[in-house]
Write a structure and sequence with these properties.
Blueprint (H helix, E strand, L loop, with lengths): L3 E9 L5 E6 L2 E6 L8 E4 L4 E2 L12
Parallel strand pairs: 1-4, 1-5
Antiparallel strand pairs: 1-2, 2-3
């Protein structure tokens, strides 16, 4: 089962607001005015879009 999520108006750091289309948890399209039939829609006006952050704290010997 494919689950689409359309995030409208999110602002990537240092960029203008865009729409993000995610399919099964992965970004498949970035642009303005995106549509996807049956997608769950999240209005993100005024919110910042960040990539997944990973804890890079490590100790190497």
């Amino acid at each position: 089962m494919v689950s689409d999520l359309l995030v409208r108006g999110a602002r990537p750091l240092g960029a203008d607001p865009v729409d993000l289309l995610l399919r099964d948890g992965r970004i498949v399209e970035i642009g303005a005015g995106l549509t996807s039939r049956g997608a769950r829609v999240v209005e993100a006006d005024g919110l910042v879009a960040l990539p997944g952050l990973v804890d890079l704290h490590t100790h190497l010997r």
